Amino acid sequence: MTYGAFDDAAKEYVIHEPGTPLPWINYLGNQDFFSLISNTGGGYSFYRDAKLRRLTRYRYNGVPGDSGGRNYYIAEGDALWSPAFSPMLTPLDDYRCRHGLGYTIFETRKNGLEAELCCFVPQEYAGEINRLVLRNTTETTKEIQIVSAVEWCLWNAVDDAANFQRNFSLGEVEVEGGAIYHKSEYRERRNHYAFHSVNHPTVGFDTSRDAFLGKFAGWNNPRTVLGGRSADSIAQGWAPIASHRIHCTLQPGESKSLIFILGYVEVSEAEKWESPNVINKKPAREMMARFATDAQVDAALRQLRGYWEDLLSNYQVRTGDEKLDRMVNIWNQYQCMVTFNLSRSASYFESGMGRGMGFRDSCQDLLGFVHMVPARARRRILDIAAIQFEDGGTWHQYQPLTKQGNADVGTGFNDDPLWLVACACAYIRETGDAAILNEPVAFNTKPGTEAPLFEHLRRSVHYTLQNLGPHGLPLIGRADWNDCLNLNCFSTQPGESFQTCANYESGIAESVFIGGMFVLYAREYAELCRLYGDAGESADILAAAQRMEEAVFAHGWDGEWFLRAYDAYGNKVGGADCEEGQIYIEPQGLCVMAGIGVKEGCAKKALDSVKERLTTEYGTCLLSPCYTTYHKELGEISSYPPGYKENGGIFCHNNPWISIAETVVKNPDEAFAVYRRTCPAYLEEKSDIHRTEPYVYSQMIAGREAATFGEAKNSWLTGTAAWTFVNVSQYLLGIIPTHEGLRVAPCLPAQFATITVRRRYRGVWYTITIENKNPGGAPRLTVDGANISGDVLPLSGQSECAVQVVIA
Ligand code: BGC
Ligand code: NOJ
Has residue 506 got a pLDDT over 90? Predict the structure, then answer.
């Protein structure tokens, strides 16, 4: 069953049924101000940091779910309904929710009154615009009241949800005309406030939640809304809100537009006050003046659309498969931008209170967006590198607002440093900007410790070499990519964090996965040294990569596939002799991507084992068989019921590694089949099983051994976005940025006879037409009519470059 449909021309997903299996959401904002918005108007907003600067409240565990958010009420006689369906939940005569790129539009209708609610965050603007247009399609005059309501969060989302003895006495507001100001804590240490405004005279307002709702009521039956009159309340502590009441008369055929703004304002210390205890509203008034008319809103919407057109134009493909095209051209790239902005902080599965920006997560996200916003990628690399320690290790996370490492989660995830190498190399291959290597970056954000970025990369690579275990394989530390394989934690106390507790520091648990990863990225680093640095270091690192490859072969090959790890007792993890968890996906992907065992036939063998033991119709499971009991020597992985999350779920993030690995062994059919199985657009008709949005990837799909096989969870903020885009754009469609230019090496099954890719690369527009005459074969390139030897397009001086490719 489907709940909507793709509108590719508009680049929208159009939902026609409010009761989607889960809230299907979208993101508004792309610089500093962000909002989450569901298909019934739920969600919340924040400035830069979902934990430290939360503007509006959201209840993750509330019942009914997804209530609150953008509350709008339309009252006409006895009829009372919401233009986004929620919170009133009154059945509508018509409902459509159009999730587009950076905006969401609700088109609804009740009793001949049409509503269009358009929500977006304009470019370079710290606020969300909600334009509500009402149109009377009947022959009679309509008298209507419109009520808005947003609930303020007291800025720090963690305190807001926990520190009630303080919270209940904090809230302060001011009301001036059509604007309500949330100035809680502004008197003391904050230099920011928020406002909710409307560009129309109001006939009432409320700022106290209790007065607005009344006793025993929720958002779907506020006393003031049912009673037809606002209380004009001023909040004194408790729960401050902002609600406006507007009256309007609509003649037959007449329409009316109201522009609501949820804005965020920062004021310098010297200009905080207009008069004693009265906040300086000048900047807020300026923000309101920028969106006081429809023409201004329309212009900002056009600008937003133009912005996305431009970003997405950097990689466009025509393959003849509309699902593939819409994922590559629109949704996968869009999701990459969202993960760039938010890492793993705020989604309907990430509360925005816990994890800030993950080190490895942000580095991998960069692989998916660097071609769209290279300048912002550059900034991001330098920010991430600054949370590295002098010994090459790194903080595991940082807060976007402060850019400081997050001490709660700490350090010691031994794959982290190598991801910095991966993303810096990807950035330089994309842009040619080797100057970034000379940028001074501090260690642990301490001024005075700056060293060139190149030195950070060097320490990353040497960190692995300085932390080897008894088999010459990398020590795993707290965990590697698989956060739940905690080989030194030995936790037996409920509530202990698997990621941070260390009850048995063995000093010997090793990761074959990091071994493969080292071979892959140490070679990239060696290439960087050869091109831009020290030839001696390059040779040394190539030799170290060779030694690692040998160690992986000698101690990490299990006969039919690669082992996963050695635990704290030196026992094998992920081997045929293990009782459970005999084979893991990660080392099969990364080791083959690194080229290990390709010549010897082991790579192919490992992938055959993946196919035989891990592959299902919904994707490739992380491991098999799943752990049925808790193993304290393995940690969190065995804490999940079989088939969920890292315990044998289909972890979408590492499916593309298998697909890429299949391209390495030149198996286009399976490479594409792996891609297709987890690709949401192909699962649209199975939305009742899959349940999450058909336009974005989820972190996990319940695996074969789970009771709800095929059910996805944790949509939006996942490294899956970047890795599937890397896979499909660079390996399946085969357009790979290298230091020398674009390499063209597609690996597609026979059903793709001819495809065209348009790719902007280092300022040049390449139009690449590929004829797939011998799937998996070697490409022959012609540029503007002239044959090219090899598969790398020489850097072009022209602005347009036409390339013909025949796979023969
Ligand atoms: C999840 C992992 C995640 C980790 C982060 C675990 O509970 O299963 O996927 O990486 O938490 O802290
Ligand atoms: C999600 C985390 O964000 C990511 O860093 C980790 O690699 C995966 N889970 C696997 O555990």
Answer: no
